[in-house]
Amino acid sequence: MNESLLNLARWLDSQSWSTQLHESYYMYAWIESTHVLALMVFLGMLFVIDLRLLGVAFKTIPANTLAERLDRPLLIGFAVMFITGFILYFAIPVRTTQSIWFRIKVVLLIAAGINALLFRHKMKSASSTWAQQQRPPKSVRLAATLSLAFWAGVVMTGRAIAYDWYDCHKTLPNIMYWAAGCVDELAQAQ
Amino acid sequence: MDVLFLFEALDQSALANISKAYGGIFAVVQMFHLLAMALLGGMILVCDLRLLGLILTDISSERICKDTQKWFDAALCVMLISGIFMSSAVALKLYYNAMFWSKMSGLALGVFFVYAIRRPLLGFAHSSVNPWALKSVALSSLIIWFSVAASGRWIGFS
Amino acid sequence: MDKKKQLETLALVFGAAVVIGAIWFWSLQVGDALDTLRLAYPD
């Protein structure tokens, strides 16, 4: 699996677009800045919704109203983050693929996505009797807590990608080489 | 007034000893800076977009904006504290960085604007306030805070 | 002028200043960026 991921990354790396982005004077910086600024939109809206679902903010506004109405700006923010994120990956594919932080970030993204989908489904199918309550039921508060935890994790691991503490060229335990997909280094170490 | 002495003091401080020595702590503090930035962004967006009549139009803007206040204050506090911590690690470099000063000007302007103009004005019943003043407040808020965020990121590139 | 009217006027003037200031500041940044690119890529 690590081999195929690395091969894909190396193939992407060989594309001229990737090199142009990576070596461009400003493109990478602008894309990355947009990615970070879009956090204010996407995660900002998410914070508002999740804090309401925890019953600690906007208590007099029905929870389902807030969630529904803020959905559009939230998804617009997410789209910007996803697109810019993909471009950032595409610009430096090999290092990113072999970044343990990026891998954890992807796992957390998937977990957050599943949590969100499950919750949306629950909100639509069940009667929203709790929407008017200041403090929603436990299962809702749990979903909101998980959501906040997953997304905080996404932000933190995302920021950590830039640090080289666990990069493949460092001396790491074999398990780390395997987890991060440092195929060549693992082969050499064995 | 030349504030170089302040930055030199910060550079030599106990705080700087920690922030410079432990890259891991610096990184975690910066992560909280980012999370607080998202919280601040969400709180201003929800109030500003409502004031501009773009979202949640069937709920009173007074209620929405009032609810954002304590979260905005908390987020701003976290950002200021984490910001000072991070600045201590690179104090002198920041003193000589033009983008840093642009960000600080924006920040000072933003803080003045929120507490001297926006909050007091939004304290009145919104229907009794000049609608252009409300829109102006919303627009100023969005421009200032996104500019502060953008210039903040750009410090890293300059 | 009562307090509300004062704040309203202040908000309007401040808002105009912020818009003009932001356009000025960010165009300067874009200008600098373009200049830097021109220097980096003379052709």
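Chain C touches chain B at residues 3-4, 7-12, 14-16, 18-19, 22, 25-26, 29 (CB under 8 Å).
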